[in-house]
Each structure stands twice: as structure tokens, then as C-alpha cells.
User: Which sequence fits this backbone?
């Protein structure tokens, strides 16, 4: 496909870029961090989903180049935050199960942190339940990252096959409740029960819980009443450019 053929050039131009979405704590009122999200605006095909980009990169043998690009772009924001004295904020990047197993992510991250010269707590890695349950080699890399002080979050929590085991297996800082449980919170009593259970679980294990996909004020208020204080979603802030991210933390 011509999309595959075009990735190397996209990597070298502005076609491929990162956007940054704010994640808000204290009931949605205070910025905790940004999630870095990959974007590719293809001249002919329009936006290419990030999962496809990661897959195409793997096919072309460009996985390392892609992850280094993501780290570099995220590092620009991290260094800016540090420069603004906002050391307690951080940036989260997504790493897929395959990237985590095939690449020495732990080495890449420690090299990046050395170059940036910022606290390792200013970087978070979002992994899935599948990654948390992966081979001993993957577990080893995650342990190295944790040991180095990098934050770990389990993304899309609740939709995998091993939600509870993934928490027993691995010490994480954060659970991100999959947005499929959050979006219809007002209409669905069953979803409210699930979300409440995950919030209680997080509280018992002393793991920070984030609700994803908060799209309305109603859902935000409902989450507050369920005891969930950290949120992400279009209602709190859309993914934006580096410049918009910096503006965002100036006003918050
Ligand atoms: O940003 P968007 O809603 O299009 O993201 C869709 C999916 O792609 C999400 O599951 C998200 O975690 C994933 N994703 C976004 N950016 C990246 C990235 O830089 N690397 C990887 N591996 N996945 C990403
Ligand atoms: O799987 P992951 O959580 O990394 O996916 C993040 C994706 O969710 C991003 O691509 C982002 O664009 C998308 N997203 C962020 N906030 C919302 C929201 O409020 N509603 C919906 N539908 N998607 C969102
Ligand atoms: Mn994510
Ligand atoms: Na998610």
C-alpha cells in the first residue's frame, strides 16, 4: 500500500507529529500531566490511526526510529515544563505490547532521560494489561523502568483479559479506566458499579485512578461523587499542539 511507502518521508516531515492531551486531578481542576498521542495526516488518506502507524513502522523495520521520534517530541515538552519550574508535572507516552517486547525500551528511556537531564518522574509509560502480563523479559524491562523512577500506568483498564492479575503482577502508579466504562456513566447503572469498583480497588491498593473519555459536565460531576478525582477527556481538554500544552499549564 502507498501508505506504508510514505511513512519514512512522513517521519522526516511535519506530517507525523505528536499532540498532547491534559489529564486533570483534584476533581478535574488541576493539571497532573499530558498524554502524548501520535498523529499522521496523510496527504491523500487523511488521518492514519496511531495503531496503524505503529504496525506499518514494524513492517518497515522502523519501530526504533518511531519510538525515538516519540521520545524526542515528548522530551521537548518535558524540558519546557522543567524550564517553567513545573517539575511536578509529567508526560505519558503509549507503548504497545509488541514495541515493549521487541525493543529495548528501558535502554531508550534511560538514554533519553540522561539527555534531557530531567527527573525520571517527569516521564510515564502507559502499557496495557497484556504488556503487564507478558514474558519475564518484558517484566524485567518494566522493573528496570520502575527502578529508574519512571512512572507506569495501565491503560484501557478493565477491557483486557487480565485486569486483576495485571495489578498483582506489577506495581503501577496509575490505572486508567477504559473510556467504554465512562462515556455512558449517566445512562448505565452497570457502568457506574464497575467504575465505583475500580475506584475502590485503586484506593485499597493505593494506586491513582484516572477516568478516560470524560465528555460532559454531568459525567465529571458523577465521577467526583464516585470518588474519582483524576480525569481525561474532551470535556476537560482536547489533545493539542506543544504550544497549546505550554499555554495550558501557564493558566492552570
Ligand atoms: O489518539 P487516538 O485516540 O487516535 O489513539 C488511538 C489509540 O492509539 C489509543 O489506544 C492510543 O493509546 C494509541 N496511541 C496513540 N499514540 C500512540 C503512540 O505514540 N504509540 C502507541 N504505541 N500507541 C499510541
Ligand atoms: O487507549 P488510549 O487511552 O491511549 O487512547 C487515547 C485516545 O482517546 C486518544 O487518541 C484520544 O484522542 C482519545 N480521547 C481522549 N479523550 C476522549 C474523549 O473524551 N472521548 C473520546 N471518544 N476519545 C477520547
Ligand atoms: Mn493511553
Ligand atoms: Na485508554
Assistant:
Amino acid at each position: 500500500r502507498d501508505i506504508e511507502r510514505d511513512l519514512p518521508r512522513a517521519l522526516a516531515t511535519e506530517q507525523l507529529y505528536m499532540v498532547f492531551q491534559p489529564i486533570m486531578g483534584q476533581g478535574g481542576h488541576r493539571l497532573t500531566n499530558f498524554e502524548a498521542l501520535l498523529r499522521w495526516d496523510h496527504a491523500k488518506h487523511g488521518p492514519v490511526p496511531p495503531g496503524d502507524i505503529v504496525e506499518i513502522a514494524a513492517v518497515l523495520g522502523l519501530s526504533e526510529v518511531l519510538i525515538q521520534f516519540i521520545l524526542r517530541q515528548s522530551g521537548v515538552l518535558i524540558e519546557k515544563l522543567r524550564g517553567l519550574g513545573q517539575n511536578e508535572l509529567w508526560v505519558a507516552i503509549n507503548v504497545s505490547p509488541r514495541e515493549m517486547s521487541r525493543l529495548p525500551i528501558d535502554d531508550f528511556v534511560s538514554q533519553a532521560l540522561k539527555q534531557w537531564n530531567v527527573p525520571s518522574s517527569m516521564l510515564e509509560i502507559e502499557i496495557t494489561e497484556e504488556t503487564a502480563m507478558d514474558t519475564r523479559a518484558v517484566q524485567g524491562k518494566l522493573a528496570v523502568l520502575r527502578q529508574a523512577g519512571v512512572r507506569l500506568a495501565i491503560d484501557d483498564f478493565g477491557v483486557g483479559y487480565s485486569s486483576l492479575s495485571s495489578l498483582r503482577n506489577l506495581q503501577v502508579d496509575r490505572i486508567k479506566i477504559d473510556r467504554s466504562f465512562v462515556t455512558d456513566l449517566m445512562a448505565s447503572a452497570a457502568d457506574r458499579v464497575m467504575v465505583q469498583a475500580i475506584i475502590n480497588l485503586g484506593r485499597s491498593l493505593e494506586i491513582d485512578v484516572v477516568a478516560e473519555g470524560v465528555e460532559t459536565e454531568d459525567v465529571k460531576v458523577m465521577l467526583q461523587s464516585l470518588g474519582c478525582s483524576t480525569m481525561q477527556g474532551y470535556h476537560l481538554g482536547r489533545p493539542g499542539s506543544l504550544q497549546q500544552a505550554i499555554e495550558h499549564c501557564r493558566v492552570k
Observations:
- The beta strands are 16-25, 30-42, 46-47, 90-94, 123-127, 151-157, 174-177, 208-211, 230-231.
- The chain has one domain: 2-251.
- The chain has a mean pLDDT of 96.
- The first helix runs from residue 2 to 12.
